[in-house]
Design goal:
Shape: globular
Order of helices and strands: HHHHHEEHEEH
Low-confidence stretches: none
Number of helices: 7
Strand content: 5-15%
Number of strands: 4
Radius of gyration: 20 Å
Oligomer: single chain
Structural class: mainly alpha
Helix content: 40-55%
Mean pLDDT: 85
Length: about 190
């Protein structure tokens, strides 16, 4: 069965290349496996689509509190200005919860590395700088209060609760349904 599948993939890739179509062979490969695929988890959804959908979900719920300092704080010492998106904290929370879904046990220090970036020092060479720990800590605490995240028993870091996993999967299915409706209209 694997040999037949491999031959079909090669045939699709060669067909795409021989017709000089703009579709790359890897795109054909991806499309082949997406046919008939059902979305049931966060891992089945494109990251940008899920993060946008979950940020809207958090905003609609109203349980995630936005602090006073959110308008003024930078997300790291390597940034010059605070984020321009007024809903940036919802987006960061959605991104954090997605990363926790994929890899449990990540703590504030790990997220500081993930969201860090290049610190521009003028004429000196650019160096890596970690993101703000206060923002990440606040997001994790709010997610804990909502019941989506809990602390790991052994070791350190956080993980998704069963209720959190159920809620994230529900939002993922809804996000794909909305995306499919938009494609059908076009």
């Amino acid at each position: 069965a694997q040999v037949i599948l491999a031959r079909a993939i090669v045939r699709l890739a060669l067909h795409a290349v021989s017709n000089n179509s703009p579709v790359m062979a890897s795109q054909t490969y991806d499309d082949y496996f997406k046919e008939g695929a059902r979305v049931v988890t966060v891992k089945d959804v494109e990251p940008a689509v899920f993060i946008e959908a979950f940020a809207q979900h958090l905003k609609r719920q109203g349980r995630f509190e936005i602090p006073k300092w959110a308008d003024y704080v930078k997300t790291g010492k390597f940034k010059e200005l605070p984020p321009s998106n007024p809903d940036w904290l919802y987006v960061r929370a959605a991104s954090v919860v997605r990363k926790l879904y994929i890899r449990k046990g990540t703590g504030v220090g790990g997220f500081r590395k993930v969201y860090g970036g290049k610190h521009r020092r003028g004429t000196c060479t650019k160096v890596y700088a970690k993101a703000s720990g206060k923002v990440i800590r606040y997001v994790l605490q709010q997610l804990e209060e909502m019941g989506l995240v809990e602390q790991v028993e052994e070791g350190s870091g956080r993980m998704i609760t069963k209720e959190g996993q159920r809620e994230l999967d529900t939002v993922a299915v809804q996000a794909v349904a909305v995306e499919d409706e938009d494609e059908d209209e076009d």
